[in-house]
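Just scan my protein:

——
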Amino acid sequence: MGISSRMAIGMVELNSIARGIETSDYMVKAATVELLRASTVCPGKYLILIAGETGDVKASMAEGVKRGGECVVDTLTIPNVHTDVIQAISMTTQIEKPGAVGVLEYYSVASAIIGADIAAKAADVRLIEVRIGYAIGGKGYVTLTGDVGAVRAAVAAAKEEAELMVGTSIIPRPSPKVFESLM
């Protein structure tokens, strides 16, 4: 895939589910954005993820922060996001040639999304998934694939820029069963 100079991703995390649902409605009405995810995440928070043209994402995020008010606990905006990040969050990535696997694990959803973008931009890898918050205690993790050298480079780049990282793993030759379980 690649980097889109006009695509951006935005995230608002709130400590109120009711306010989160209401805020997501305001955000999608404020600008032309795609609602990638609007759902509860552990521990009892509400997460809104949007994507679209950079200007639209910024407008939607401004509305989200305004409407979320005192319930907003975290936000994130990445302009010029790597297109694999959006696909990996949406769980629509198609991997034609399995390779080595890298795993990046973070204490926060925002850190996982940032780590995925850094890794995808650092080396010739494909993001498999960016798993965020639900049923994993509010953490986030990223799985990616490519040749061993590219996976090592991507993991190293994400690790270097890491905030709130739990750990990483690199599996040079994963079992086909393990790789299939990641899809």
